């Protein structure tokens, strides 16, 4: 099916497209369960990677058939996504039969359905340094037909700096969730760079946050299975059957590196970005690494 590229518009102060606002009432009224696990991210910060780690931690041993039969985006539904002729993200989440339900969202913290807070659900927020994040987002928008036209790199970077991206400003997103973490203890705030640096350590941290007593052997196995090359070769995790993605333009699992921004930013773009970054991040204790 053809998916026309949508327009971006302001929605309660955040740039979005209709694919994420069409089902708004149902998203806002979504009934969470106390054992739901939410994977929250700004787009392109490692959502699929973290979703897959969580799915393996919870279900590989009890439901091994999932591994070869259900693509990751079906195991972990995208809460606010609403596409014509398809069940909405809330419907998909509502009909999950496994427990806990693992649910993906890109919503900024102020838009999270209140039921998740009321039920004190565990939330894994994964984030990524702004420079690699925008590069990854640019290549994604080139291949994802349900995203607005990306334009060229320099105009995309300009829009990113202005927060005119689907799901709004990266700065507001990462800082909003960071602030929430200071008062809501069930958020595990993690970094893409840490995952690249030491996946095994991050899996252990996740287990400890989630209260899982996964064996060392199983954790080692998961570490191998979530390696970039393995996920890229795995039809259940490389999104190759997603018909809105144009794989002739780019790859979903594209590079998976820290520091690819250096291949995209000009010296001037980098200096201007650093200047803006300093201003935008001056009131937060949140720190990122742009290389490891
Ligand atoms: P790049 O475009 O820089 O390669 P999301 O799932 O939030 O859309 O994020 C996608 C980004 O995460 C892509 O970044 C993708 O390659 C990267 N990624 C996904 N799985 C990965 C893995 N196992 N190891 C490293 N990077 C991974």
UniProtKB/TrEMBL annotation:
<feature type="domain" description="Sulfotransferase">
    <location>
        <begin position="34"/>
        <end position="284"/>
    </location>
</feature>
<keyword id="KW-0808">Transferase</keyword>
<dbReference type="GO" id="GO:0006584">
    <property type="term" value="P:catecholamine metabolic process"/>
</dbReference>
<keyword id="KW-0963">Cytoplasm</keyword>
<comment type="similarity">
    <text>Belongs to the sulfotransferase 1 family.</text>
</comment>
<keyword id="KW-0128">Catecholamine metabolism</keyword>
<dbReference type="GO" id="GO:0008146">
    <property type="term" value="F:sulfotransferase activity"/>
</dbReference>
<dbReference type="InterPro" id="IPR027417">
    <property type="entry name" value="P-loop_NTPase"/>
</dbReference>
<dbReference type="InterPro" id="IPR000863">
    <property type="entry name" value="Sulfotransferase_dom"/>
</dbReference>
<protein>
    <recommendedName>
        <fullName>Sulfotransferase</fullName>
        <ecNumber>2.8.2.-</ecNumber>
    </recommendedName>
</protein>
<dbReference type="GO" id="GO:0006805">
    <property type="term" value="P:xenobiotic metabolic process"/>
</dbReference>
<dbReference type="Pfam" id="PF00685">
    <property type="entry name" value="Sulfotransfer_1"/>
</dbReference>
<dbReference type="GO" id="GO:0005737">
    <property type="term" value="C:cytoplasm"/>
</dbReference>
